[in-house]
Design a protein that fits this description.
The termini are far apart. Helix content is 87%, strand content 0%. The chain has helices at residues 2-15, 27-57, 63-97, 99-142. α1 (2-15) runs antiparallel to α2 (27-57) and α3 (63-97) packs antiparallel against α4 (99-142). The longest helix is centred in the C-terminal third of the chain and has 44 residues, at 99-142.
Length: 143
């Protein structure tokens, strides 16, 4: 799902400079656009890379390395995707409502993505690790 979404975002962003209104963007808007398209291209590359890693290591009995590398590449890709989404949000609100609205919308998008993609998963990870530790200590005491 993430791979398809980032590919669509990148494709959309790549078409924008060919639109008539693009020429009217301010220098700041163009910089935000370049940040968005750069982050989106990087996200596409990192999120697609696990496929190449899998193909290169397929049937070579290196599953652990494959999974670890794919995990790391996907995390980096998600970070770049978040940067792209925040940049696009900032650009759209800036063009439509002004720079202040763009900054507010970009900040809210960043806060939302940090919460959904970092804080909540981290919280679940810590909570589930605590349950695993408690369960293993319970077995030691009862055994």
């Amino acid at each position: 799902m993430v791979q398809t979404g980032v590919q669509l975002l990148t494709g959309f962003l790549l078409t924008l400079p060919f639109q008539q209104k693009f020429a009217t963007l301010s220098e700041g808007d163009r910089r935000v656009y370049l940040a968005a398209v750069s982050a989106s291209i990087l996200a596409t590359g990192f999120l697609q890379a696990p496929v190449s890693v899998h193909r290169a290591l397929f049937r070579r009995h290196r599953r652990k390395e494959t999974v670890l590398m794919a995990h790391r590449l996907a995390i980096i890709g998600i970070v770049f995707l978040a940067c792209a989404v925040v940049s696009v949000t900032t650009l759209i609100f800036d063009v439509m409502l002004g720079w202040t609205a763009g900054l507010v919308a970009g900040g809210l998008a960043a806060a939302l993505l940090l919460t959904l993609w970092l804080a909540i998963p981290w919280s679940v990870r810590i909570h589930s690790a605590g349950q695993v530790n408690a369960a293993s200590h319970g077995r030691d005491a009862g055994g």
